[in-house]
Design brief:
Shape of chain B: globular
Strand order of the largest sheet of chain A: 1-2
Helix content of chain A: over 70%
Order of helices and strands of chain B: HHEEHHHHHHHHHHHHHHHHHH
Strand content of chain A: under 5%
Oligomer: heterodimer
Order of helices and strands of chain A: HHEEHHHHHHHHHHHHHHHHHHHH
Number of helices of chain A: 22
Distance between the termini of chain A: 39 Å
Shape of chain A: globular
Number of strands of chain A: 2
Strand content of chain B: under 5%
Helix content of chain B: over 70%
Number of strands of chain B: 2
Radius of gyration of chain B: 22 Å
Radius of gyration of chain A: 22 Å
């Protein structure tokens, strides 16, 4: 076991070990449990940062690989690795989880049960990180499903008033997509042949088999639909998005942050890692449809946001819109498009994670999420919180100079000239829809800021003595705020990492 | 015709039979306050029988003229049944002791039923199969009605009995037809005789006979449309009896069915695979959709077992001329049975722990259990989530193996796989009903739950096993492919 082949496994399983340790701690050591949460997520983050430093940015192919036998009875192997596409998302998982653990130091939502809360959060972190490093379809599926149970309990126990409904809806909806994805994986397995009639679940081998023309066109069309359904529900693509507003709104703050910040990315990552390279013909045929659904998502989400009265629900719908830009980038099947998608995912993770933190903090103080009830004047009452909220909202609407801009503009740019096999006028129409969506996005964010931040402070809040941003909150937010600015000013920091692997992925296409 | 009996081969059964007699005799001579001693004696006897079974591992024996065979398949199921017997005895102890039941008689009857379970996987002869089936069922009729003053218990026993004897009668008729056609009762010889094409009239008779025999076993495994007895019987019977019926009794039925379809009737697969496909689809669908309506936990678990039986019948529908697929289907069925039994037994153990709370336990009675009994609440959550088939728990791998062989088969397999996945998603909503009550809803009071130590131990043991197999499926999945009957 060297650093090279064990680093990412250790980083991924460290939170799980933490969850087991926390299960053994007696219930009365409340602060101790929260401290343990910070320790374990912090340790995992240290490993992740060490991985970014020892990563060879010039090399192509997988690094930190480990490929051992796991379940010989079904030909599933424990194959993990990381490349430039998964590295940003992998690190994002640990960063957001660490910041969530710090945020938990200050407040655990009712009904308390700190041990279970942090234990489930750590289990969730393992599941999310594992999805980004798995290179065996069954391993990928196990990690993919692993996140469902902790999130179901996080929403169902620590959520707000309609939590039970939101939790079960989330679970059933996502499971429904996942089971068809599993059948698609099995179909890919039985149709693969790496020599002598031997089948494989290995993603790398399947990519090579597909590149050599192994899967028939009809097969790819059917299997892409099955596998795509599972990913589409997770992203979530319109019209499979209806689980998201309820789940995000009812979840506790860190649940929403992790759900929006990382879990949605699993779906888009699945498209980039599995659906596109292994089923290229299917990808080309379905790309116009994915683009259409993405364009609809952008506009639909923006219109829905304009209608929202609940602040958290508004942010939730904005996630649908942002993932629409990500999917539009993917649908173009170009280098710029997929780079835009990954950039957009990281930026969305930072920005929307931050937005949910702000809304959570606002709720802690005001005990309401209704915009009308808040009434305005947050800038007067809580200048720092209002300021941060305004900053992040403007980052989310895509102001140049901040991280959100690059994902959107690159997606639109790629839509102007999509891959050769796709219809340019169609994608330019999508681009125009995306542009309209950008204007509407700016509209709803600015209108929300006007209603919440500006205006006069209602009488009932003047007497309230809640404090401005606390020290713990600053500690958990500053890294995100800095990240948003840094990525906005130096996008090449990220695109340099993703450029080469995306190009080699598109090379598999021959598109 | 006198043949030498291979006593080593039947040693586990002999030990268990001796224990059965001992239990009854001891019970007759003990004072009423000491009648519970029947259980430790029964426990010791089962352990001895288990040791005897383990010494037989690696052997291939046949006795009683080939009617009784000890091979890997038989040994796997025998070890499994004896382990389940230990767990059933553990969860029954306090329930029957505190409930003022006849204890010695109960252990006598339940062990007799387990004796039948032991005989079943060794039975390679139609008569032997019938004897085993009756030996499993007959004590079941009595112990289902064990709560003498409760009309529901009487109803449970009567319904079970009437359904049981009707199905057995039909099955016997089918067996007699097969004997008439092939001139033999031995499963392998029947398989050989039926593998050559029969004249048209006789072919139809053979198919009808197969149908009748399947009907007898379909009752045992509570497949639709033979499942009507199951919910009422599980609900009315004492809960440990329901646990026994849902796990060991059902597994015995499947063991018999596996031997029949893969040894005696493999040549007629074109006839019976569509029938099993229909049985499987109906069973899983009706089981799942009616389970959604249930408010009572034991009835919920009953319909859940019916639906799970549907999943276990699916591999039978995938049999074809391809021996590789047949072996995979066989292994998938066996693995599913083993994993299903552990999950269901664990769930019933939790219900037994709660049994004192109220007669006719409702799902809402589980409210707030996470505060009152956290260990049991976590164990029950593990069982429910595993039964729904969510990784990384054992139930997922059980379902995965079935999906895998279904997709491998293609054709009808793909359609069946799609129906099974949709059913799995639907089932999640009722499986999560219990954890939802335990974890999301506050209970009326916070008095800690006092559960018998052995029951809690069984629940914990089963949940650890479910998680262990879930994380490292090779623990279990290694064995069933070695115990195949395909190609023999």
């Amino acid at each position: 076991m060297t650093w090279e082949n064990s680093a990412i496994t250790i980083a991924t399983l460290l939170p799980l070990a933490g969850a087991l340790v926390i299960a053994l701690v007696p219930r009365q050591y409340e602060k101790g449990v929260r401290a343990l949460g910070i320790v374990f997520t912090g340790a995992a983050l240290v490993f992740a940062i060490a991985i970014t430093f020892t990563f060879d940015y010039g090399a192509s192919g997988l690094q930190f690989q480990l490929n051992t036998s796991w379940i010989p009875a079904i030909d599933a192997r424990y194959h993990v690795g990381i490349d430039g596409i998964s590295l940003p998302l992998f690190v994002l998982t640990f960063v957001l989880s660490f910041l969530c653990a710090i945020y938990t130091w200050r407040v655990v939502p009712k009904p308390g049960k700190t041990k279970a809360f942090i234990g489930l959060m750590l289990l969730l972190e393992t599941g999310m990180a594992g999805t980004f490093i798995a290179f065996d379809l069954i391993l990928f599926f196990v990690f993919w499903e692993l996140v469902l149970v902790p999130m179901y309990f996080l929403i169902g126990i620590w959520g707000s008033s309609n939590r039970e409904y939101a939790a079960i809806k989330f679970f059933l909806y996502t499971l429904f997509g996942s089971v068809f994805m599993l059948l698609g994986f099995l179909a890919m397995f039985f149709n693969s042949d790496i020599g002598g009639g031997v089948h494989t679940f290995d993603i790398v081998q399947l990519q090579q088999y597909a590149a050599s023309g192994g899967f028939s066109h009809a097969f790819q069309l059917i299997v892409f639909a099955a596998v795509g359904l599972g990913f589409a529900v997770k992203v979530p693509m319109w019209p499979f998005h209806t689980w998201l507003p309820d789940a995000h709104t009812e979840a506790p703050t860190i649940g929403s942050v992790l759900l929006a910040g990382v879990m949605l990315k699993m779906g888009a990552y699945g498209f980039i890692r599995i659906a596109l390279p292994i089923l290229p013909y299917g990808a080309q045929k379905y790309a116009p449809w994915i683009g259409l659904l993405a364009a609809i998502a952008i506009v639909y989400a923006a219109l829905a946001c304009l209608a929202q009265k609940d602040l958290k629900r508004l942010i939730a719908f904005s996630s649908v819109g942002h993932m629409g830009f990500v999917m539009l980038g993917i649908a173009t099947l170009t280098s710029i498009g997929i780079n835009a998608a990954i950039f957009g995912m990281v930026a969305h993770g930072l920005i929307t994670g931050m937005l949910f933190f702000c809304v959570g903090s606002l709720y802690d103080r005001y005990h309401t999420r209704e915009i009308a009830e808040i009434g305005g004047g947050v800038m007067q009452k809580l200048p720092y919180l209002g300021g941060v909220f305004a900053f992040v909202a403007i980052a989310s609407l895509g102001l140049p100079g901040l991280a959100g801009f690059w994902g959107e503009v690159m997606a639109l740019l790629s839509s102007y000239s999509p891959a050769q096999s796709l219809s340019t006028p169609l994608f330019r129409a999508f681009m125009i829809a995306g542009g309209v969506g950008t204007i509407l996005t700016a509209g709803y964010f600015l209108w929300m800021l006007q209603r919440v931040n500006m205006g006069t402070l209602p009488e009932k809040w003047k007497a309230e003595a809640f404090g401005d941003v606390a020290a713990v909150e600053w500690v958990s937010w500053v890294p995100l705020l800095v990240g948003i600015v840094v990525l906005g000013l130096f996008p090449s920091l990220l695109t340099d990492v993703t450029q080469a692997p995306v190009n080699s992925l598109l090379g598999l296409f021959g598109a | 015709m006198n043949q030498a009996i291979d006593y080593t081969a039947i040693l586990p059964e002999l030990i268990l039979a001796g224990t059965i007699v001992l239990v009854l005799v001891v019970d007759a001579f003990r004072a009423p306050a000491r009648k519970w001693m029947a259980m430790p004696i029964a426990f010791a006897g089962v352990v001895a029988s288990l040791i005897a079974t383990l010494t037989l591992i690696g052997e291939d024996r046949s006795t009683f003229g080939g009617a009784f065979v000890v091979d890997e398949f038989a040994l796997l199921f025998k070890v499994f049944f004896l382990s389940v017997a230990l767990l059933v005895l553990m969860v029954s102890f306090r329930y029957f002791r505190d409930g003022h039941f006849y204890q010695g008689e109960f252990y006598f009857l339940v062990l007799t039923s387990f004796l039948g379970c032991l005989l079943m996987p060794s039975s390679r002869d139609l008569l032997m199969l019938f004897i085993s089936l009756e030996l499993v069922s007959a004590p079941g009729f009595v112990i289902a009605a064990f709560r003498k003053s409760d009309p529901r218990s009487n109803e449970a026993g009567i319904k079970f009995f009437l359904f049981g004897v009707l199905s057995t009668a039909v099955m016997l008729y089918g067996m007699s037809l097969i004997y008439g056609l092939t001139g033999s009762l031995n499963l392998s010889e029947i398989g050989r005789a039926l593998s050559t094409p029969l004249p048209p009239g006789r072919e139809t008779m053979a198919q009808a006979a197969i149908l009748f025999i399947v009907a007898g076993f379909a009752f045992k495994v509570s497949a639709v449309p033979f499942q009507f007895w199951a919910p009422d019987t599980y609900e009315g019977a004492p809960v440990p009896v329901a646990a026994f019926l849902a796990t060991a009794s059902k597994a015995a039925g499947f063991a018999g069915l596996l031997q029949l379809m893969f040894v005696a009737f493999p040549a007629q697969y074109e006839f019976w695979t569509p029938i099993f496909a229909v049985l499987s689809i109906l069973t899983m669908t009706i089981g799942n959709f009616v389970a959604l309506q249930q408010r009572q936990v034991v009835r919920l678990l009953a319909y859940s077992s019916i639906a799970q039986a549907g999943y276990m019948l699916l591999p039978f529908a995938l049999v074809s001329a391809n021996p590789v697929i047949n072996q995979d289907a066989f292994a998938a069925a066996v693995t599913y049975i083993l994993i299903y039994a552990v999950m269901t037994l664990g769930a019933f153990a939790v219900v037994i722990a709660m049994a004192k709370e109220s007669r006719g336990l409702l799902i809402t009675d589980f409210a707030g259990l996470s505060r009152r009994a956290p260990v049991i609440a976590v164990a029950m959550t593990v069982f429910m989530v595993s039964l729904a088939g969510i990784p990384p728990l054992a139930g997922f791998w059980a379902k995965f193996l079935v999906f895998q062989v279904a997709i491998q088969r293609g054709g009808i397999g793909t359609a069946l796989a799609i129906i099974m996945v949709i059913n799995s998603v639907v089932s999640l909503s009722y499986y999560l009903a219990v954890p939802k009550q335990m974890l999301f809803v506050d209970g009326e009071h916070e008095r800690p739950l006092v559960a018998p130590a052995m029951v809690t131990a069984v629940a914990v043991l089963a949940s650890v096993a479910v998680v262990a197999v879930g994380v490292w499926p090779e623990l279990l999945a290694h064995f069933p492919p070695l115990s195949t009957l395909v190609g023999q």
